[in-house]
Amino acid sequence: MNDYENAVEIKGVTKKYDGFTLDNISFDIPKGCIMGFIGQNGAGKTTTIRSLLHITDINDGEIKLLGLDHIKDENAIKKRIAVVFDELPFHDVFNAKDMAKIFEGMYPEWDNDEYMKYIERFQLPQKKKIGQFSKGMKMKLQIACALSHNAELLVMDEATTGLDPVVRDEILHIFMEYLQNGERSILMSSHITSDLEKIADMVTFIDKGKILLTGYKDEIIEQHGILKCGKDKLKEIDTEDIVSIRTNNFGAEVMVTNRESASCKYRDCVIDPASLDDLMLYYVHRDVKEWS
Amino acid sequence: MKLYRSLIYRELMLTRKRFILMLILFLLLALLMMTPLILVFIFKPVEGEESPLEMIPLFVGIVALTGGFMAGTNNGLQKADISSGWKRYSFVLPPTAKQQALSDLLTKLCYILFFGLLSWAFEFVYTAAADYSNFGIMLYIYMLNIYLGAVCAVMLVDIAYSYIMMYAKDKNQLKLISVLAFVGAGFVFRVFGLFPGMNKAGKPAEDDAMISEEAVNKFETILCSGKTTLCILAVFVVLCVLFFLAMWRSHERREP
């Protein structure tokens, strides 16, 4: 049942829309990892997630979830995964108890005690209609449902967007607990990079339908750096080292792809570590090279 | 079994309000039909064609027709599932498209059975209260034919609507396809009217009545026939299969 190496394997996936193409994307999520899937709005995060969940058909490529083909073995996969969307997909007329009744017949491994534990922990009312819940409560309910059937893979599409920092922190903490047995994996798409910096082991960065970076978060952050120098110094920097340049009144900030080699090559410049936010900003402007 | 219980529970809970409203309307109509019968017992009974007792087949027909329409009509679940986001969520849930379609059909059959039994109960009350035995078993066949006929007619519209919902990309297209379907249905009826025996426009009914007595008698004979019941039952089974297929296709169809 658990004899797979990667919880998610995406190889050469292409999905074409009018005016947008998810272009030959590939990345893997090893078992036991939290993968942060980042990119600006419209970059292709949701299309990728919908493709891997078979909500939409792909034009080309191969997707494997838990070592199984995402279309051929769809039924087996669905019992072992959980999905959290940015908006609650439950009808307003139901309450938390109704949802338990609905899901307990659908998931063979549904655990009502576990569900009630989450409901109590999140302080969600059992009999209040979902329509009267706040956004935070709705998201908590969706997460409680997702975590109560022993899913091996949790896929979240902008699940923490629109939540206040306290609720977000509480939810992130629960995800960390959820991963503790090492058999579970999470794919979490978000443009709130601070959340991913806290919990993600790996990061995949998508922009305009193309994967720009994928790998272990610490390695990616360690590799990149922000080189600070005067505008006159820019000519001396090798173009191959540059992702893009941010200019301001005082000089320029250059994102370099190899911090270690850049610190040897440009000894008179200061190189600061880059954050995920920086990575997003500089990579998004990679085509214009210089921006302010 | 547990799976179907969950799926049907969800559908029944979501259609509960609509069901209660329909039930109230049905009960009001059925009780309204009973009023003349009750009055017969209180005031001086009216004999002959004017007697409310002679109207019992008409009352039964109206109740069965209403019950059939209410049971077979679209329950609005597809639309509600799309707008709540459940439709998209259902793609990541374990029930297969076939299982979901079967639960849709079973829910519909629950309503058909419920309103069928209710119509039958009212017929029983009408006939028992008025000690009416003019038709005997024929009245039950007559009611069943009207009831199932109404269910079939509404189910046919529901199936067409489901297909329209499936293929329309947006609201404008939905409106356009609906108008085209409406015009198409009108055209089909017009074509049927061209067949010999169907077009009676040139043959006026006697005494300025809307329908001739001959036509009424013929219609009554058809409605009280066991053969008609068999035909309608066959149509009903076919429509159930078509409904299942439409739902199956609808649940299987992925987003663009």
UniProtKB/TrEMBL annotation, chain A:
Recorded superkingdom: Bacteria
Pfam families: ABC_tran (PF00005)
Keywords (A to Z) from UniProt: ATP-binding, Nucleotide-binding, Transport
InterPro entries: AAA+_ATPase, ABC_transporter-like_ATP-bd, ABC_transporter-like_CS, ABC_Transporter_VariousFunc, P-loop_NTPase
Cross-referenced CDD domains: ABC_DR_subfamily_A (cd03230)
Entry keyword annotation includes Nucleotide-binding: yes
Residue ranges of every copy of the ABC transporter domain listed in the record: 2-233
GO MF annotation terms: ATP binding; ATP hydrolysis activity
The protein, known as: ABC-2 type transport system ATP-binding protein
UniProtKB/TrEMBL annotation, chain B:
UniProt superkingdom: Bacteria
Signal peptide start-end: none
Keywords: Membrane, Transmembrane, Transmembrane helix
Membrane-spanning residues: 20-43, 55-77, 109-129, 141-164, 176-195, 227-248
Entry protein name: ABC-2 family transporter protein
Species per Swiss-Prot/TrEMBL record: Ruminococcus flavefaciens
